[in-house]
Design brief:
The complex is a heterodimer of chains A (316) and B (387). With 316 residues, chain A is of the alpha/beta class. In chain A, 34% of the residues lie in helices and 28% in strands. Chain A is elongated. In chain B, strands 2-1-3-4 form a 4-stranded mixed beta sheet. In chain B, a hairpin with a 5-residue loop joins strand 3 and strand 4.
């Protein structure tokens, strides 16, 4: 059986110069929730729109259930449901009219009432779209994608700008779709969303996939599940001319897999904090420095991204 | 590419791959999408008060305003100004006296002939005359003679001079030697309003076709709704067809309202068959729908399409004989004017409504419309930008 979504070596160049996508290859298995995680402008939307058949790649190939978009686009569209990053649905139609409209495009749609029920929009059935809250609008956008009874769901930044409760509601909807055997491809720049929702992830930066795997694997690949963050005061001691020499001090501590510095904070990726922390305290004490701050936490995808790119996912 | 090779034998993907124990699927018919798109379009229009105003109410207001303004226009009422002086009041009395004192039958029956006279000082009188407020200025000279100030380039001024002269002469005692009588002829069919209403009809079909299709498309493109639609199995032709046919539904209401208004308020008569008028209206509405589609086929922003639509419509407002006959333009321009779609539509509507011409007699004009509509539609489809 062909994969629901597969692409090889996708490239997209805008106006002959801006390379938005630079050689992306993916294979997404049936029943998976696959996430494209990356900062704004990384090429996520361009990639997903090429996969959705809405943009033609400059080069490379897309296959949806083994078919290219040139084969039989109408049939492929019957199989997939799409929620674009920003669609302003007609404000002066009711929720039900909107769903009925989208249902009418598919040859075997689901009943509008059932979809509205699943998405907790039944109460709002007769409300104009313009009167909905942000979360309700976003659920309606997903409802228009689900009403065609798709096998694959494409969601471009489904929860951007939503409040925490609305986000969780959407996650439940996505999980329910997946539980019924559906395949999901979503883009996000929220690492918590990627971590909780996705079975597999591709981290995208500058139009390329820089890491791919299950969220836990990606974190595991950092070399440590834990992060120890601390600040020490120099106490007048002459600091090393370049930071690397300073960081070498910490890299040699037991259990430390990698080290990085963010402003005045040192971050250590460690496998076993109970070995690292006492050794850290010894070093600080023996050199007469003062520890100003110390905390430990679970490593996250954010750490993976920073490790790979030296930047944060969301620079704000 | 390696992946292409390995996937080639697996092209057959059956829909039963994913277990779906939800409700049994219902099947949509071939035209289900089209019907919904059309219905939704009409709902949206109905819920948009501005649309109702501009498409339905505004043309009626325009017709009412122009109809009233030009109702008595055929230079019936002469307004003159008498330059103030010792003899001004006597002149006024002569004009008014002649009005009531006329003995001969023809003038007494001629109710439409009347004079509105004012007395102003010299400067104000001549100024008002030059600004067109009065058709004629009269000055009574000391020696008992009169001087007329008139503008030979203004027909009503020329008429006014002749009329006032006749009145003053008869008030001074001139006797008419011939007995004449006149019958008025302002039959429905030959008045300005009869000329105007078909023109407004044509203009309205153009306006609402251009805005209703062109503007709507760019607005949906800007909202990414077009992109969302083409992300579904929706047939693109259904979408364009629904938009165009929504114009037909509106056309029936537009034509009915405006003609009904003309008939009820201005006692206009529709000489040709209503069916012909509706058919011509339908061809016009679809043709301008096509032109609207072409105008909007690439534009990304509402601002840019608004400019484009006005650019396309402007020449037709001026040249296509909406408010006045295009015969006034130079002969050399006539073939170009007649090739404009609005000219063809207005001519066909006027011939049918005013002259009662048959539908078949309009085939050349309808062909002009069909070519504009058809060519625009084909080009629009080729260049159309969905995303």
């Amino acid at each position: 059986m062909a994969s629901p979504i597969e692409c090889t070596n996708l490239r997209k160049t805008y106006d002959g110069k801006l390379e938005a996508v630079r050689g992306v290859s993916l294979q997404i298995e049936a029943g998976q929730c696959f996430g494209l995680l990356g900062p704004n402008g990384a090429g996520k939307t361009t990639t997903i729109e090429i996969l959705e058949g809405l943009l033609a790649p400059t080069s490379g190939e897309v296959r949806i259930f083994g078919h290219t978009w040139d084969d039989n686009p109408r049939q492929l569209r019957e199989w997939i449901g799409i929620s674009l990053q920003e669609t302003r649905l007609s404000e002066k139609l009711t929720v039900r009219e909107t769903i009925e409209l989208f249902a009418s495009f598919y040859s075997e749609p689901r009943a509008a009432a059932e979809v509205l029920d699943d998405l907790e929009l039944t109460e709002k059935s007769d409300a104009w779209v313009g009167k909905l809250s942000g979360g309700q609008k976003q659920r309606l956008a997903v409802a228009t994608a689900l009403v065609g009874n798709p096998r694959v769901l494409f969601l471009d930044e489904p929860t951007t700008g939503l409040d925490p409760q609305s986000r969780r509601q959407l996650w439940d909807i996505i999980r329910a779709f997946q539980k019924n055997g559906g395949t999901v491809l979503l883009t996000t720049h929220y690492m918590d969303e990627a971590e909780r929702l996705c079975d597999r992830l591709a981290i995208v930066d500058h139009g390329q996939i820089i890491a791919e795997g299950a969220p836990s694997d990606l974190i595991e690949r950092l070399g440590g599940q834990h992060v120890v963050e601390f600040q020490v005061s120099d106490n007048g001691r002459k600091n090393a001319k370049d930071g690397s020499e300073d960081l070498d001090r910490w890299r040699s501590l037991p259990g430390v897999e990698s080290v990085r510095r963010e402003d005045s904070t040192v971050c250590l990726s460690v496998r076993e904090p109970h070995l690292t922390i006492p050794a850290l305290l010894d070093v600080v004490g023996s050199e007469g420095d003062r520890l100003e701050h110390l905390s430990t936490r679970q490593a996250s995808l954010e750490d993976v991204f920073v490790q790979l790119t030296g930047r944060h996912l969301r620079e704000d | 590419m390696a992946t292409t090779e390995t996937n080639a034998p697996m092209l057959h993907t059956d829909k039963g791959q994913i277990p779906r124990d939800a409700v049994p699927p219902r099947r949509s018919g071939r035209w289900s999408g089209y019907r919904h798109l059309l219905w939704v379009r009409l709902l949206e229009l109905k819920r948009e008060p501005e649309v109702v105003f501009w498409v339905f109410v505004f043309p009626l207001l325009l017709a009412a305003g122009l109809g009233i303004a030009f109702r008595n226009k055929p230079a019936d009422i002469t307004s003159v100004v008498i330059i103030d002086g010792p003899a001004a009041q006597r002149t006024l009395a002569m004009l008014q006296g002649s009005e009531t004192g006329l003995a001969d039958k023809s003038a007494a029956n001629d109710k439409t002939s009347s004079v509105r006279a004012s007395v102003l000082d010299r400067d104000a009188a001549l100024k008002a005359f030059h600004f067109g407020k009065y058709d004629l200025a009269i000055e009574a000279n000391a020696d008992g003679s009169f001087t007329y100030y008139y503008d030979p380039a203004r027909p009503e001024s020329v008429l006014s001079r002749a009329e006032i002269d006749a009145k003053l002469q008869s008030a001074a005692g001139r006797k008419d030697v011939l007995i004449t009588s006149a019958k008025t002829s302002s039959e429905p069919g030959s008045r300005y309003i009869d000329f105007l209403i078909p023109g407004l009809l044509g203009m309205n079909l153009m306006n609402s076709g251009m805005w209703g299709v062109g503007f709507a498309i760019v607005e949906m493109r800007q909202r990414k709704l077009l992109k969302r639609f083409v992300a579904t199995p929706m047939r693109r032709s259904d979408f364009l067809l629904a938009l165009t046919s929504s114009r037909l539904v509106l056309m029936i209401i537009e034509v009915g309202l405006l003609l009904g208004f003309g008939v009820l308020v201005f006692h206009m008569r529709v000489q040709g068959s209503i069916l012909s008028v509706m058919l011509i209206g339908a061809i016009g509405a679809v043709a301008f729908g096509g032109v609207g589609l072409l105008t909007a086929c690439r534009a990304q922003k509402i601002e840019s399409v608004s400019g484009l639509i006005n650019l396309v419509m402007m020449p037709m407002w001026i040249f296509s004989g909406v408010f006045f006959s295009y015969q006034k333009f130079p002969v050399i321009a006539q073939p170009f004017i007649k090739a404009l779609p609005l000219t063809a539509l207005n001519d066909a509507l006027r011939a049918t409504i005013i002259e009662g011409a048959s539908f078949g007699a309009q085939s050349a004009r309808l062909l002009v419309l069909a070519v504009w509509g058809g060519v625009s539609f084909i080009l629009a489809l080729r260049w159309f930008r969905w995303t």
